[in-house]
Write a structure and sequence with these properties.
Helix content is 0%, strand content 45%. By secondary structure, it is mainly beta. The chain has 4 domains: 208 residues, Jelly Rolls, CATH 2.60.120; 116 residues, Immunoglobulin-like (Sandwich); 137 residues, Jelly Rolls; 81 residues, Immunoglobulin-like (Sandwich), CATH 2.60.40.
Length: 606
């Protein structure tokens, strides 16, 4: 992955991501684990080859249950055809029907706080599965159907080659957290497949399979809320052979110097790189493997060099030519992975389109789709994102989005925004400016809210900055939108005065609108627009008492800038012509902006 300007920061803690409440009125906010970002085996959703072994839980004797000494249907694993937990009334809609395995740990809705603490619930195959005797090699995968949802759970899939020592081969930390502020349950059923080819020796013997459940937060084990589970349902467990030709995409990266931006101001456009990691989970080596992109239906195309990926190897494919956006507008990038062989499992080659915007003034790391929030219980905190600056620019304001609703930001909370620069030598965050304290009102929630810095900051090219929102007390809930790779979004905990990185992207944006801080029309500016209505050209006549440089901005009815140009006036009258023949018919606003203030006029486009 390409490196950000932010090269030398030492990781100062673990992940803090989207602190969330479950869908329970009694649960406290907690955070997911760093393990969600750790390297893990390839996990695909695909149709595989020959089934060597299977079990659908029809015989309870095929499984050993260890419920950490807990008894009763409300605690640990059970096998039957009835959903016994509090969350899902109907259980799993598995393709085989009949019995299934279910994980339960108390009922936090009817009996809050009665979850069993400090437990690990294991469900293990009673007998060894001899892969060699079944005619298999290491080219196999575990496949099973599951249902449930994740809160603070660690839902782990493990194997053993000796029946006593088990190690993890996969988990559900790739699933979103379900909470009052976002997330979703698993598909019902969700097909999970874990490729064991890179884990097992070439000629494996016996293996045992285990499904293990515990908390994802052993450091908070005394808190009953870290032991809440919505339930985990398992059915139709299989060991299947891997396909002959199977390339799968294991990761995707796009961005400038390591940081992806979903909104980029025209002043900060820079080359955007694209790359993917591709795993060959099939039996055959794959030749002629190529990754390509197509931007805006052929406006820009490029591809990686053709390569060969041997069986069980992973390769990074990098687009040969970076893409630099050429102007304001929406950009959609279509991705494709091709090879000489026909892939047996094309579904795991699909890469979702990448969409971003070039704007007038907004610089955004979040994707604009709220999903979860960041908070810190009873302690104050700061949360925000890194931004690389490529061209000199003055920053006056920071946009934020604070969560509303029953689990949202408390009205009356005092919040602020801050800007830090990053010391390229030490990695330290160096304070630059902040806003005045702001008292949150109900109207400020679930909207894009701009808070003005009390001292504008002249940003230095080739420097990384951290923009944050914060509060010194409880009550703030910052909306997250999208995910961040480690060390690109950050959280400062006032409880221990420590910076942590977070993997949820907080809705914290740089706003370069030059009108920020200009609160009223200036008596030093007189303006006239004509003809009105206009068709081809609009004349903007200005009389300004001082010699100045300014901006003419034309806004549409939705408040978006559709035209912008600069002008110079030498203490007198000037007339600027703006071509408008490409504008749609309708009502527009012209804003004349100078250091002394601004003036506005409306006109109609015929």
């Amino acid at each position: 992955m390409k490196k950000s300007l932010f090269l030398s920061l030492v990781v100062l803690g673990s992940v803090v991501y989207a602190q969330k409440q479950p869908l329970l009125p009694t649960a406290n906010n907690l955070v997911p684990s760093v393990n969600a970002m750790c390297s893990k085996p390839i996990i695909d959703t695909k149709t595989l080859g020959v089934t060597l072994w299977s079990d659908n839980f029809d015989s309870l004797a095929n499984w050993v249950i260890d419920n950490s000494g807990q008894a009763g249907i409300d605690f640990g694993w059970n096998i039957n055809n009835t959903s016994d937990g509090w969350w899902s009334g109907n259980g799993i809609n598995s393709t085989g029907g009949g019995n299934y395995a279910e994980l339960v740990n108390g009922d936090p809705t009817q009996n809050p706080g009665t979850q069993a603490l400090s437990v690990t619930y294991n469900l293990t195959t009673a007998n060894p599965i001899n892969i060699a005797a079944l005619g298999g090699s290491n080219q196999i995968s575990i496949e099973f159907e599951q249902y449930g949802a994740r809160f603070n759970d660690l839902q782990d899939i493990q194997i053993s080659t000796d029946g006593s020592t088990f190690f993890s081969v996969g988990n559900n930390l790739d699933k979103p957290v379900l909470s009052a502020s976002g997330g979703s349950p698993y598909a019902n059923p969700d097909l999970k497949i874990i490729n064991l080819a890179t884990i097992l020796p070439a000629n494996p013997g016996n293996i045992w399979i285990r499904f293990s459940w515990t908390t994802n937060y052993p450091g908070s084990a005394a808190n009953p809320n870290v032991w809440i589970t919505y339930g985990w349902y398992i059915d139709n467990v299989k060991i299947v052979t891997n396909p002959t030709n199977d390339l799968s995409i294991t990761s995707k990266y796009w961005g400038t110097a390591g940081l992806p931006y979903y909104q980029i101001p025209t002043t900060q456009t820079a080359p955007i790189d694209f790359e993917i990691d591709v795993f060959n989970g099939g039996i055959n080596n794959q030749t002629g493997v190529e990754y390509s992109i197509n931007v805006n239906n052929g406006a820009f195309t490029s591809a990686s060099p053709s390569s060969t990926i041997n069986s069980l190897d992973t390769s990074t494919l990098i687009i040969a030519n970076s893409f630099t956006p050429s102007g304001i507008g929406n950009y959609t990038v279509v991705h494709a992975l091709t090879a000489d062989s026909t892939d047996d499992v094309p579904a795991n080659n699909v890469i979702s389109n990448t969409a971003f915007n070039v704007t007038n003034y907004i610089y955004a790391r979040d994707n604009g789709t709220p999903a979860g929030s960041t908070s810190n219980g009873t302690d104050g905190f700061e949360s925000g994102n890194l931004f690389d600056i490529w061209n000199a620019q003055t920053l006056k304001g920071i946009d934020v989005r604070m969560l509303g609703g029953a689990s949202g930001t408390t009205v009356g909370t005092e919040v602020f925004v801050k800007l830090y620069s990053v010391d390229a030598t030490t990695g330290d965050f160096v304070f630059e400016s902040e806003s005045d304290p702001y008292i949150v009102t109900a109207a400020d929630l679930n909207i894009n809210k701009m808070l003005m810095l009390n001292v504008p900051v002249n940003l230095v090219p080739n420097t990384t900055y951290l923009a944050v929102i914060g509060a010194y007390s409880q009550g703030l809930r910052v909306v997250n939108a999208g995910s961040s790779t480690p060390q690109t979004s950050f959280f400062f905990d006032y409880f221990d005065n420590t910076w942590y990185y977070q993997t949820g992207t907080p809705w914290v944006r740089m706003n370069f609108d030059p009108t920020i801080g200009i609160n009223e029309e200036s008596a030093n500016i007189s303006t006239l627009v004509y003809p009105n209505p206009a068709n081809e050209v609009l004349n903007v006549k200005m009389e300004i008492n001082n010699t100045t440089t300014g901006v003419i901005a034309i806004y549409n009815a939705a408040g978006s800038i559709v035209k912008e140009s600069t002008f110079n006036v030498a203490n007198g009258i000037a007339v600027e012509q703006v071509t408008i023949n490409d504008l749609s018919a309708g009502l527009y606003t012209v804003k004349i902006i100078t250091n002394d203030g601004f003036a506005t006029r409306k006109f109609a486009k015929k």
